[in-house]
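Hello again, I could really use a second opinion on something today. My current little project is about how a certain protein chain folds up. You're getting the sequence in one-letter code plus the fold written as tokens. Here's the protein in full, and shout if anything looks odd to you:
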Amino acid sequence: MTLSDHVKALVEEIETDDGERRPQLDPSPDGRPGAGRIEAAVGDILLEIGENPGRQGLVGTPERVHRMYAELTAGYHVDPDRLLNGALFDVDYSEMVVVRDIPFYSLCEHHLMPFFGTASVAYIPRGRVVGLSKIPRIVEMYARRLQVQERLTQEIADFLQVRLEPQGVGVVLEATHLCTVMRGVRKPGTSMTTSAVLGIFRSDDRTRGEFLAHLERRPPGS
């Protein structure tokens, strides 16, 4: 699959620390930026719901939707090796490492509506740690895909378990799903919590309890 410069920059932003860059979508042969199947499909949707795709407020909507989906699904194209970029360090440390309250935004694969919240990730090293900035990037790599929260939680845990080979990993996600808030049962304030525990976090009640206790503590200044 050939990626536009726009998506390439988003992928590089997740993989590296180069900051935000937002190039334009590659122009199509007829000169219109990003004109193609997504734009045509969005135009059909607008017609189907009774709108006029040619009216002033909607003329640019198909291109904007194309750009939005390119951003929200950029995680499919992230290279995990480039993301880690050698940021695994041998350290004589074997106590729990916890990174809490990592914001994430994703798309529910059932309705293509957003769900969003925070992730908390913990692991107990086996002589090797990962750079702090990499854990939020791992979360973002998997969040920027079509997802269900349960799978997203497990993928983050599995990635760390395979790449770090720690004694164990714990991941908890808390999220609000707009498919529940805006449609269907329409229950504002509803949230969903999912967890994945591997290794010693699964086999040892005290370790799992310590992890959950960390999540209950409020950070300084809160």
In short: The mean pLDDT is 89. Residues 5-77 form a domain with the GTP Cyclohydrolase I; Chain A, domain 1 fold (CATH 1.10.286.10). The chain has two domains: 5-77, 87-216.
